[in-house]
Amino acid sequence: MASINMQQCFVRNEELKHYPKISIDSIFSRMQLIISSTSNIYGKCLFVIIMLILNLVHCRALLFISLDSIFSIKLGAFFFVLIANWLPIVFHLRYNHKLVKQIEDHWNGLQIDYDYETRKYFWTRKAIYRWLVYFSYIFLYIFKYSYSLYTLSDKDTSKLSSEVVLKQNIIFYFLLLICTPITLFIHCCQSCIHIDLPILAQTAVQYNLIKLKKLLKESGKDEKSLNINAIQNIRYRYLLSCRLVDKINEIMSPALFFMFTYFLANACNLSYSLIYYEQNHLTKWYNIFMTSFILISLLVYTHANIKIHEKSQESLAIVYKLSLKTNSMRLLNEISLFLNHNEIGFTFGGMFMLTTSSLSKLLSILTTIIVALPTFAK
């Protein structure tokens, strides 16, 4: 079935760009499913190996060799390592074959993949976000690589034996050239999934929004064009969109909570170090850059999530306008059922709906904690 937009383009003899079938299947999704909780024994073993590699990278700050070769433990670094393990574990437990199958079933139940504008909306936004993710991780690796090489060259090894220096260099390059790329790839997989799922939910809500706008426009020209079948059809798909968003929320809700927690920990650490520690300029700017990178990434992901709620609210506002266009009791009853639907959106750790208003309050609370906590921690 061709959409009306496609038919209009055919009439104008315009060449349509081909967009493939909408799907969340990708290399990154497959990789995450390989190491998910529903994978086979080899996948679970691979997950354990990847977690060891992730912790090797994060534990560089946890364990360090002093001049007398005694290992010392930093409590703050241990806390960071603990937080860094949360998100991969959440993805391992929640993002599995069963969840992906249920999401695909909910999406296929909508039966809107035939629409050209729907495919265009999904793939154009997915492409934009994907390139943004690719660029950010490439730039991040180059930045971390350059900083690590600088710290290695700037390190005073005059009091160490050549054997110790050789071992340290081997460990350093093993972490930098092997473990760090693997770590960034796993994080990149999770970031792409963080983007794909909200865009899929956005696409479902966007389809309903377009249909409602068209219905409102037609009713403005002719009130008789407003029929109950059209309202019922859109309301039914809106209900299916709610179920799709709720299913995606099973992975997005805890993921958003841990992402904000990770940013809070980094921001508090940055604030504490800037206030109480003397650092060289490069280390200081490196920490500022990394915290800023986490913040920007968090805002990008959050924006993609909040758009779902905004579009659903816009849809309900149009439905309310449609109620003013008719005096039919059957239509008004159908519209009232539409307006009684729950809000669509993702929750923050299952505690509250993440909206523009709640996000501003959350950021205010986080800012207060970031400013105040280092003072009490001293």
From TrEMBL:
Keyword Membrane among record annotations: yes
Top-level division of the source organism's lineage: Eukaryota
A molecular function (GO) term: signaling receptor activity
Claim: Cell membrane is one of the keywords in the record: yes
Keywords: Cell membrane, Membrane, Receptor, Transmembrane, Transmembrane helix
Annotated localization: Cell membrane
GO biological process: detection of stimulus; sensory perception of taste
Source organism per UniProt: Tetranychus urticae
The protein's name: Gustatory receptor
Bilayer-crossing regions: 41-65, 71-91, 128-150, 170-189, 256-277, 283-301, 359-377
InterPro entries in UniProt: 7TM_chemorcpt
Bilayer topology: Multi-pass membrane protein
Primary location class: membrane
GO annotations of cellular component type: plasma membrane
